[in-house]
Write a structure and sequence with these properties.
This protein is an alpha/beta fold. The chain has a 6-stranded mixed β-sheet with strand order 1-2-10-7-8-9, with helices on both faces. A 4-stranded parallel β-sheet has the order 5-4-3-6, sandwiched between helices. It is globular, with a radius of gyration of 19 Å. The N terminus is likely disordered. Its cofactor is pyridoxal 5'-phosphate. It comes from mine drainage metagenome. One of its GO terms (biological process) is L-threonine catabolic process.
């Protein structure tokens, strides 16, 4: 993969101004009361090659809309002016942010437009439309959908709800970290999938404010990986168009604000293959009876591939960030997962 420095990229001045802190995350928790669920934290069942009793799963698969994205989207809408709310909001998304924005907008009676890549999961498109949003399909991937979103925003005077590079969105995702600490105060390591970086940035802000020793690991699909190279280079690098089935983390680069936060909090980045993602999805379905999408399974995929990440510095939490897997992909992914786990033999 050739990774280069981006000429331009998706960025936005945060509505809260600057980097969010613990106060903004706690305010987000109040804003989300009655909207986002405090999702379960389960002790993981026995998994191949991983010692028992040291891994916990934060199940955002059981969140409203099936993903953590509702947290950031709902919190951002709490800061809309009456005039902004009247005109409506717009977002670019591969699927989960789309549903989060649509759900939050419907709850507040705000018109919502979502620009999605032309290859977006049909199930996510239908789910977004069912929540009352207008869906516009544009571009081959998230980056191109983002560019179309910006053009439409200017034409129609809509307010952007950024999927990750926004202080209010990051603060909303950070509420997940507060829930982890409430349920497991001795947590030592937290892993989360990374697309634009909003989830991991929010976790970093919340967790390190209250427990600075927590180690944070961001996981990307190798076919859409840029964070590891960016951290090594000390600047944001942009990859080519992603070629992963994990559409929730299929971005060319992380955000400007999120990268700043991830650098400041010394996160580690790891990459996983498509086969490793498929194996993690299969094992989560088999062992927990929960259907997980590629982005949600990425932390477990990293642990299965790198069990040394389960160091003895306290319990490890894998954030299972979403479960919106397209049914049309399920058979292929499970077949690949079975092969990766050694259950079937290719001749």
């Amino acid at each position: 993969m050739v990774i280069r420095a981006p000429a331009t990229g998706p960025s936005l001045s945060p509505p809260l101004g600057g980097v969010p802190g613990l106060a903004e995350v706690r305010a987000a928790q109040l804003n989300l009361a009655g909207v986002a669920l405090n999702t379960p934290l389960w002790e993981a069942p026995a998994l191949p090659g991983l010692p028992p009793g040291r891994l916990w799963l934060k199940l955002e698969t059981l969140q409203r809309t099936g993903s953590f994205k509702i947290r950031g989207a709902s919190n951002r809408m709490a800061y809309l002016s009456p005039e902004e709310a009247r005109r409506g909001v717009i977002a670019a998304s591969a699927g989960n942010h789309a549903q989060g924005v649509a759900y939050a907008a419907r709850a507040r009676g705000i018109p919502a437009t979502i620009v999605m890549p032309k290859g977006a999961s049909p199930s996510k498109v239908l789910a977004t439309e069912a929540l009352g949003a207008r869906v516009v399909l544009a571009g081959a991937d998230y980056q191109e959908a983002w560019e179309a979103c910006q053009s439409l925003r200017e034409q129609e005077g809509l307010t952007l709800v950024h999927p990750f590079d926004d202080a209010a969105v990051i603060a909303g995702q950070g509420t997940l970290g507060l829930e982890i600490l409430d349920a497991l105060p001795t947590v030592g390591t937290v892993l989360a999938g990374v697309g634009g970086g909003g989830l991991l940035a929010g976790l970093a802000v919340a967790l390190h404010a209250l427990r600075p020793e927590v180690r944070l690991v961001g996981v990307q699909a190798a076919a859409a990986g840029s964070l590891k190279a960016s951290l090594l280079a000390g600047r944001i690098l942009e990859g080519p168009a992603p070629s992963t089935f994990a559409d929730g983390i299929a971005t060319r680069r992380v955000g400007d604000l999120t990268f700043r936060i991830l650098q400041e909090h010394s996160v580690r980045a790891v990459e996983v293959s498509e086969a490793e993602l498929a194996r993690a999805i299969f094992l989560l379905l088999e062992r927990t009876h929960l259907l997980t999408e590629g982005a949600g399974a990425a932390p477990l995929a990293a642990l299965l591939a790198h069990p040394e990440l389960l160091e003895e510095n306290g319990p490890t939490v894998a954030v299972i960030s979403g479960g919106n897997l397209d049914a049309f992909l399920l058979d292929r992914i499970l077949w690949s997962g079975l092969a990766a786990d050694g259950r079937i033999l290719h001749l």
